[in-house]
Design brief:
heterodimer, A: Alpha-Beta Plaits, 3 helices, B: alpha/beta, Anaerobic Ribonucleotide-triphosphate Reductase Large Chain, 18% strand, globular
Chain lengths: 89, 452
């Protein structure tokens, strides 16, 4: 099962480290990363494999959200199907 | 990998443009709960609803978390209660309303619909008693919604029921006058009522439906408006095309949620209702879409044409995105639930006559309209009759949800709170239709050919 982690907010030190540390802790494998910085705005999209995740998805989602709150960013994890169904016929 | 632009677009829609799944509604048949002993029937109803819907709210919340898409309501619709009440003649049907309320609280849904009767051709056993009991049922419960179907294209309009419903609406307003007449916000009078509608207050589980089913209603007026704003000054062909594309995306999301809910609840998927359902929140208004198309304010000449385009494009875009479409599908225009409509009604740009014309080309009908507190029952009945006639002749669903604001006059306001919103009392035409309504009888079903 794959999911998308989207991080949006002001660029700062340690964004990638923070998110990937959390992924490691719960055995989530990062398969692809793409990021762009437009002026001050930082947008990072990660494609992750959550089949080996050691905690339930809802808990993972809560932890990502609180990690974001701590860094003053929006960190969301969403099942990839929502993007596939919305944007592919 | 999925396109980054697409990912950001979806997140933008959810975070800033109020994209959401408006409701997951579980339809439950109560036909096997009939019993001549009303207490036994109520017990069976409570048991069945709480057994079938025990995981509904939890599953909704889980899907919300996993897909990151807000699901605003989790609701239940049941078989029209008049059919169950028919088995226990002489008993007070309010007991059923109290049972539904108890069940709704037990499973944590925010509305339960189906305190309903289908009387388009005449009153069957249980129907009249149910109509009589609606004011008390709605005043003694918080989550129960009621609807009555008084006409259809195939049967014509039951004018005896129309006259009675004029009184029922008025009585319901009076009995809940201390709570801003909120009872009437939970009461809809239909023509051509759909049997699989997931939206309240008109949801009920039709007799032709399976034992249990999951229906989903999508929303997203804010997304459509934002897309139009971005597109700038394209012509109306471009506008229609853009709305179709946006509706497609919105509906695909609804379809995904519906399938997932159906799988997790082990209940068949029924339909996706392709709707643009506004909320009073800023940026979630159907009126603002019409204004974005180029009208100074909703209610101006051109409103009906703009709404016709919007309604049709939403359906065209949505139909391909879902395997089964149903319910009320189209743009909703509930006045007190739509920030743009509230403003237009306050400024006088939007009047009842224009709203009536708009209902000929869009989903549902005269919805969430506050009328003066001294509006007599026969005028309410005549409003219902006019609206039903539009539905009957045009083979579409129409409905009336009017709230006589007891003790208030034009310009005063009612406030219901939450998604029901609030808004100004609107003027109604005071010429008396009393003799016409007093005649009773039935308006015959219309001819389906020689369409002019």
């Amino acid at each position: 099962m794959r999911a998308v982690i989207a991080v949006i907010g002001k660029d700062m030190v340690g964004i990638l480290a923070g998110v990937s540390t959390l992924c490691t802790e719960v055995n989530v494998n990062i398969t692809e990363v793409t990021q762009s910085v437009m002026q001050d705005l930082f947008a990072m999209i990660m494609l992750v494999d959550i089949s080996g995740c050691t905690i339930p998805f809802t808990e993972l989602s809560d932890r990502m959200e609180s990690l974001g709150a701590k860094m003053g960013l929006s960190v969301k994890i969403m099942h990839e199907d929502i993007f596939n169904s919305m944007h592919r016929v | 990998m999925i396109n980054v632009h697409d990912i950001l677009e979806t997140i933008q829609m959810i975070d800033n443009e109020n994209l959401d799944v408006r409701t997951i509604t579980m339809g439950i048949s109560l036909l096997d709960c009939c019993d001549p002993d009303i207490d036994a029937a109520c017990e069976k109803i409570y048991d069945k609803i709480t057994r079938y819907a025990k995981d509904l709210v939890k599953v909704g919340e889980d899907i919300e978390k996993e897909y990151g898409i807000p699901i605003i309501h989790k609701r239940i619709s049941v078989t029209p209660i008049s059919m169950i009440a028919a088995a226990c003649p002489g008993k007070d049907p309010v007991k059923f309303a109290l049972t539904l309320e108890k069940a709704a609280r037990a499973v944590g849904v925010n509305f339960i619909g189906g305190y309903s009767a289908l009387v388009q051709k005449g009153f069957g056993p249980g129907d009249y008693a149910l109509l009589q009991s609606i004011p008390e049922a709605l005043s003694t419960t918080e989550h129960v919604c009621s609807s009555v179907n008084i006409g259809s294209t195939k049967t014509g309009i039951n004018m005896d029921a129309v006259a009675r419903m004029g009184q029922v609406v008025r009585e319901t307003a009076e009995i809940t006058a201390d709570r801003d007449c909120i009872g009437c916000a939970k009461l809809v009078v239909f023509c051509n009522a759909p049997e699989d509608n997931p939206f309240m207050a008109g949801a009920f589980h039709g007799p032709g439906e399976p034992d249990c089913v999951v229906n989903v209603g999508v929303s997203g007026p804010g997304v459509v408006r934002a897309a139009l704003k971005k597109a700038g000054d394209c012509d109306l062909t471009g506008v229609a095309d853009l709305i179709k594309r946006t509706a497609f995306k919105i509906t695909r999301m609804g379809q995904l949620v519906a399938q997932e809910a159906s799988r997790r609840l082990c209940v068949p998927f029924g339909i996706v209702d392709l709707s643009l359902a506004p909320t009073p929140a800023v940026g979630d208004s159907v009126a603002h879409i019409l204004e974005e198309m180029g009208l100074e304010q909703c209610g101006a000449y051109g409103t009906t044409a703009a709404l016709a385009l919007l309604n049709d494009a939403v359906k065209k875009g949505g139909v391909m995105a879902s395997s089964h479409v149903g319910g009320l599908s189209g743009a909703f225009i509930p006045v007190t639930e739509d920030a743009g409509m509230i403003d237009a009604a306050r400024s006088g740009a939007l009047r009842l006559e224009k709203l009536e014309a708009m209902t000929a080309v869009c989903s549902v009908g005269l919805d969430m309209i506050n009328s003066p507190g001294d509006t007599p029952a026969e005028i309410i009945a005549a409003i219902i009759a006019d609206e039903a006639a539009i539905g009957m002749v045009n083979s579409k669903t129409t409905a009336v949800r009017v709230i006589p604001a007891i003790g208030k006059k034009v310009g005063d306001e009612l406030s219901f709170g939450g998604l029901l919103g609030g808004g100004p009392v609107m003027e109604v035409n005071r010429m008396s239709p009393a003799r016409f309504i007093g005649r009773g009888g039935r308006i015959p079903a219309p001819l389906q050919s020689l369409k002019n």
